[in-house]
């Protein structure tokens, strides 16, 4: 490829694309963040700055391949009204010429500071990594300041990326995903007192010595007195009820000793059990909420997304608020999403049935709340008829606690099932968000979440509840039509 377009020309293309009604195909999303063209990748630089939420993300504006990684930006005050996606950072310097890779943001003395990985490759494909500093003004304009961590520590390969900054006391810290020379995934910690010069503290000592060949996109933060490390390991062995995607994203909770860097922690737990989730980033807003956004996609699995024929691929997840209960991270959609509720079309209480059809749903953009009590049922299924001769389903076994998401009967896109375990209970709570081609399911008040892309051939809105082996009680059911977020120049 020749010279890149200017950021101004890319952003003019964005504006023109939103004005073009032909861009609104069947799978165009209403309230998940996506770009009008190109490939959307990891969320980056998430922070609350000057009264607005800044959501950066990796973006290839030139195609649906993992190349030419820029940073894009949307801003919002209320998660209903957003600025249009805007290209703000381009790989056009010697230290990032093969991609502006993932990074993070933090407000320092009233200024938004950014740290990101500059990816560089030579003619033979040999990789170099530079951790680069930049600043962002209130209009979203970025000024590059070049590498501040220019060298890879001894004992590690050039797979050294994705700096996530945070502050503890008066000290800035930065965790970086790494691979050691034995080709094992690790996380490295740096510190700084001024954000300009960074000191290598060392490798965070976890009990996972053989746990994949690379750990990407780490986030470190405190929540309710616990230290939490989120990361995305690559190379874990697939099992029946976990590690079912090509790569995983999850967390460990415990206590990190900043003197010894020893992390006393619990078992690694995946954050999302759906088909499409990776590289989440966490941040705290001015209300003290710990928030998280993930990438609703997976590396190396682009062929199964039919939006490629429209010149775009992937999106971000909804924003989730994190909390801890009994040593487990719970995830719930932030309260602001209630403002997208347009019309309450289902409102049921205490209905006993073997089968129930939600026949008032006439949209592919809705929120469903369902609280079910087992009476003498053995299994329950939510079946979504998404088009002629195609459907997806969510199944729950009351006796074993096994949950299954099945998209094997879809005509477009990747198929398959995902199986995971909940605690066996006589009650199941489901909060589901359907958004044309994106589905997020929150179970048991956020104990488990499953995010998946689905691509129905045509509009069909049938939702049916089916009980096996006996009846269930719909203790409560509500469905709202949801309006889309608004993008403004």
Automatic annotation (TrEMBL):
Catalysis: reaction(s)? Hydrolysis of terminal non-reducing beta-D-fructofuranoside residues in beta-D-fructofuranosides
Q: What is its EC number?
A: 3.2.1.26
Keyword line: Carbohydrate metabolism, Cytoplasm, Glycosidase, Hydrolase
Q: What class of enzyme is it?
A: hydrolase
A Pfam family that this protein carries is Glyco_hydro_32C
As for subcellular location, the record says:
Cytoplasm
Annotated Glycosyl hydrolase family 32 N-terminal domain residues: 32-333
What role is this protein assigned? Enables the bacterium to metabolize sucrose as a sole carbon source.
What sequence ranges are listed for the domain Glycosyl hydrolase family 32 C-terminal? 358-481
InterPro entries on file: ConA-like_dom_sf (IPR013320), GH32_Enzymes (IPR051214), Glyco_hydro_32 (IPR001362), Glyco_hydro_32_C (IPR013189), Glyco_hydro_32_N (IPR013148), Glyco_hydro_beta-prop_sf (IPR023296), Suc6P_hydrolase (IPR006232)
GO MF annotation: an example? beta-fructofuranosidase activity
Question: Would I find Cytoplasm among this entry's keywords?
Answer: yes
Organism this protein belongs to: Clostridium cibarium
What pathway is it annotated to? Glycan biosynthesis; sucrose metabolism
Q: Which family does it belong to?
A: Belongs to the glycosyl hydrolase 32 family.
Q: What is this protein called?
A: Sucrose-6-phosphate hydrolase
């Amino acid at each position: 490829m020749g010279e890149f377009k200017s950021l101004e020309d890319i952003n003019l293309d964005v504006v023109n694309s939103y004005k073009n009604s032909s861009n609104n195909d069947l799978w165009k999303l209403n309230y998940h963040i996506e770009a009008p063209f190109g490939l959307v990748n990891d969320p980056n630089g998430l922070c609350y700055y000057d009264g607005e939420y800044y959501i950066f993300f990796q973006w290839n504006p030139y195609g649906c391949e993992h190349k030419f990684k820029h940073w894009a930006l949307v801003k919002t005050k209320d998660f209903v009204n957003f600025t249009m996606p805007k290209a703000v950072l381009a790989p056009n310097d010697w230290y990032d010429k093969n991609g502006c890779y993932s990074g993070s943001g933090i407000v320092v003395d009233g200024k938004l500071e950014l740290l990101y990985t500059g990816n560089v490759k030579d003619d033979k494909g040999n990789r170099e990594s530079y951790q680069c500093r930049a600043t962002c003004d209130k209009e979203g304009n970025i000024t590059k300041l070049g590498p501040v961590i220019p060298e890879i520590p001894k004992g590690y390969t050039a797979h050294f990326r994705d700096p996530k900054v945070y502050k503890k006391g008066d000290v800035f810290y930065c965790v970086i995903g790494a691979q050691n020379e034995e080709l094992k995934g690790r996380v490295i910690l740096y510190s700084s007192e001024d954000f300009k010069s960074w000191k290598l503290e060392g490798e965070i000592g976890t009990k996972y010595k053989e746990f994949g060949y690379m750990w990407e996109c780490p986030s470190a933060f405190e929540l309710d007195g616990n230290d939490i490390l989120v990361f995305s390991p690559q190379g874990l062995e697939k099992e029946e009820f976990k590690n079912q995607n090509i790569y995983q994203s999850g967390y460990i909770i415990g206590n990190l000793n900043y003197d010894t860097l020893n992390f006393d922690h619990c078992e690694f737990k995946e954050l999302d059990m759906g088909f499409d989730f990776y590289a989440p980033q966490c941040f705290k807003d001015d209300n003290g909420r710990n928030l998280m956004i993930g990438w609703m996609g997976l590396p190396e699995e682009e062929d199964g997304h039919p939006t490629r024929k429209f010149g775009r691929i992937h999106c971000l997840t909804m924003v989730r608020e994190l909390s801890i209960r009994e040593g487990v991270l719970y995830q719930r959609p932030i309260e602001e999403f209630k403002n997208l509720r347009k019309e309450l079309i289902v409102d049921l209480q205490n209905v006993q049935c073997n089968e129930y059809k939600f026949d008032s749903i006439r949209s592919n953009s809705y929120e469903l709340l369902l609280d079910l009590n087992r009476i003498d049922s053995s299994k329950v299924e939510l079946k979504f008829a998404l088009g002629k001769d195609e459907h997806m389903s969510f199944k729950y076994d009351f006796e074993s606690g096994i949950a299954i998401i099945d998209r094997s009967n879809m005509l477009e896109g990747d198929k398959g099932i995902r199986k995971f375990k909940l605690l066996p209970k006589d009650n199941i709570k489901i909060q589901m968000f359907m958004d044309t081609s994106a589905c997020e399911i929150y179970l048991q008040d956020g104990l488990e979440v499953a995010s998946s892309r689905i691509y129905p051939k045509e509009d069909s809105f049938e939702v049916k509840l089916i009980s096996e082996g006996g009846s269930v009680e719909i203790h409560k059911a509500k469905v709202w039509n949801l309006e889309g977020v608004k993008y403004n120049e």
